[in-house]
Amino acid sequence: RLLNLPGELRNYIYRLALVEDDHIKISKNSKPLQPGILQVSRQCRKEASDIYYQENIF
Q: What is the mean pLDDT for each group of 10 consecutive residues in the chain (58 residues)?
């Protein structure tokens, strides 16, 4: 289980899953989609949201 792993390892996994090499494009006509890992649980969303929003360029 992901949540049973140490926090440092979870953060490493979140970065692999969430940080993009390219800009993330958001259109005013489209609804932004959250990555699946942010929808797994409240704890995953809380832990991984900062990584997703701070380490990507939108």
A: 96 97 85 87 96 94
Handedness of CA 51, 17, 9, 44 (dihedral sign): positive
- Token readout for 27 is 């259109």
Domains contained in the chain, number: 1
What does pTM read for this prediction? 0.83
Residue 55's pLDDT is 96
Q: Quickly list H helices, 1-58.
A: 7-18, 42-55
Does some domain include residue 28? no
d(CA 25, CA 57) in angstroms, rounded, equals 9
Let me know the angle formed at the C-alpha of 40 by 31 and 24, rounded to the nearest 5 degrees: 35
